[in-house]
Amino acid sequence: MYSRLQRFLDRKYETCFLWGPRQTGKSTLLKTLFPKSPYYDLLKSDEFERLIRHPSLLREELLALKSNRLVIIDEVQKIPQLLDEIQWLIVNKNLSFILCGSSARKLKRGGGNLLGGRALRYELYPLVSREILNFDLLRALNHGLIPRHYLSETPSKLLQAYIGDYLKEEIAAEALTRSVPTFSRFLETAAFSNGEVINYQNIARECGISGPTVKEYFQILYDTLIAFELPSYQKRPKRRIISSPKFYFFDLGIAHFLLKRGEIQYGSEIFGRAFEHFILQEIRAHRHYSGKEYSVSYWRTASGFEVDFILGEHEVAIEVKGNHFIQPHHLKGLTAFSDEYKTKKTIVISLDPKPRMINHIEILPVKNFLDALWSGKILS
Fold first, then answer.
1. pTM for this structure?
2. In sequence order, what are the residues at sequence separation of 6 or more whose Cβ sits closer than 8 angstroms to the Cβ of residue 81?
3. Residue 93 is part of a domain; what is its CATH number?
4. Boundary (domain end) residue, out of 123, 140, 160
5. pLDDT in tens, 148-175
C-alpha cells in the first residue's frame, strides 16, 4: 500500500487549490486528511445539477452550518460560477476552502476568477518511491505511478480506459477540440516526443493538421496537467546551447502505453528512457512536496554535450544512466557542464551496486539517490 506525502501544513486558515491529473488520488487524500469537513463532490450528477442551476445554494447551505470549518469542493472546475460565491464567503464570513480539480483551464474558459490571487496552490503528483511500501522500480517503469495502475496486476487495461476516458471527458465533453479522432492520433504521435524537444512541423505532417493546431493541442495537454515542459538551462552560457524545452507526459505509464513498448527490463533498450522519466517524476514531486520549489531544467549544447537535470541555479547537476557500471566515458556531459558552471554536487544516478566517486562526480545507485533526495540531502 501507500501513504501520501502531500500535506497542507502551511495552509493554516487560507483557502487553496489542489490541482492534479485524474486518478492521482486527490479525493482520497482530502477525505483522509479532513474527514469532518463539509464535502461537495461535483462528479455526483445530483450535486452538479442543483449547484449549476443555483450556485447561490452553496452560500445558503454554508451559512446555515454556522461553522468556520474548512469546506472542500471536489472537481470545482465543473462549475466556474461557484468561485464568485466562494470569494464572497471568504471575504465576508472568513470561511476557508480546499478547491480540488484537474484543470484550471476550465475555470478560466468558464469565466472563473481564481479568487483574485487569494488562494494558495498545491499539486498532487503520481506516487513516488517514498510513498510506497516495498517500492519496485521495474513495476513503476512498466505500470506507471498512478495509484490504481501501479497496484494493478493488469495495468494495460486501466491505462487504455484512462486514455479513453480522458479523450472522451476532458477533450470531447469540454469541447476543447472538434475532432476527437484527430486529437487521438496527435496524442499517439506526441508520445514519440516524450523526453525530447518537440518538432511541431513533423508532428503536424504526420497528423495531417496545421502547425498552429499542433501547438494548441500541446497547450491543451499542459493546461489539463496531462503533460509538462522541462525548460533548457540558459544562464550565462559560454557555449551555443539548445534553448527549446523538452516535452514529458505527467506519468511514465502513459508514455509507455502510447508508445506500445514491450516489457521494460534491466538492460533493455527502452530501460534508459523510462528510468530517466521516473527520476524526473521523483524530482518534480520532491520540489513541490518539500516546499523548496527549486527550478528543474536540462542542459544540452549544439555540439552534443548534455546533462539530464539541473536543479536550482546550477547547484546540482544530474545525469541518469541505466548502466550497472559507470565509466569515465559516461561523464562527458557532466564534465563539460562543470567546466562552465560551479556546482555544489555533480551526480550520476545508476544501477551500480555501491556509491563511489570519479573525478569529484558522485556515482549513486538509484536507491541511494532516492533516499538522499527524500531526506533532503541532495539540495542541502
1. 0.93
2. 52, 55, 110, 111, 112
3. 3.40.50.300
4. 123
5. 999 999 999 999 999 887 776 666 555 4
